[in-house]
Design goal:
By secondary structure, this protein is of the alpha/beta class. The chain has helices at 39-49, 63-70, 88-95, 122-129, 197-206, 225-244; strands at 8-13, 33-34, 37-38, 54-59, 77-82, 105-109, 113-114, 137-143, 156-158, 164-166, 174-182, 210-214, 219-220.
Amino acid sequence: MNFEKPNHAFILAAGKGERLRPYTQTTPKPMIPIQGRPILDYIFEKLKKSGIENVTINTNYLGDRIKNYTDHYEGLNITLSPEDKHLETGGGVKYALHTMEEKPFYLINGDAFWTEGKGLNALDRLAQAWNPKTMDILLLLQSVEAMHLTEGVGDYNLNVNGQAVRSLNKTGAYMFGGIRITKPDIFDGSPEGAFSFLDLMDKAQEKGRLYGIIHEGEWHHISTPKDLEAVNAAMATAATQVKSA
């Protein structure tokens, strides 16, 4: 690893998850259970295994559910950033950017659910590939062809230099998995209030400073009730196979 590994993660957890209703009518999406555990718990587990100690989580919709859970969680230094009004993915991070201590950090969607491949885990692979001299944002991408359990969307292609190029017609080879490393100074000059982090990703691409690596394990796009039920069923099958092995 040529550069200092980020020791802080920001988890986006303020959205309503409307496409996942009725599950999200009473539960925020990051707290939706997979095999009895909230999605957020799986993210926390991976952060701890990678040695990441500090976490900021923005909240809005049903934020009290997340607070109740994190108040009793041990093993991470967790800071909540409640939003009176939903600030979207960019504005929410900017509002709590001071908690990142002006250093590069992991930015993870609160519904990101992935399994690891062989070798280094995904967060360590991102850190190993991260180069702040040439990159503003480094994305974890999932091959659309490798997505069988949930439907993939072709968000990006990669050029020969590893730079990510957004596919405007969604026919790219890779889906963005909602996991990335980013620099805090990309927020310089960004709007106040609500805005999408995608705007900053597009700006990084324009500068040739948006890169990606391909995830070696599985990542599941949990967007609809059908997706959630498919992932839960697959995880139950996998757990049964492990017990009987």
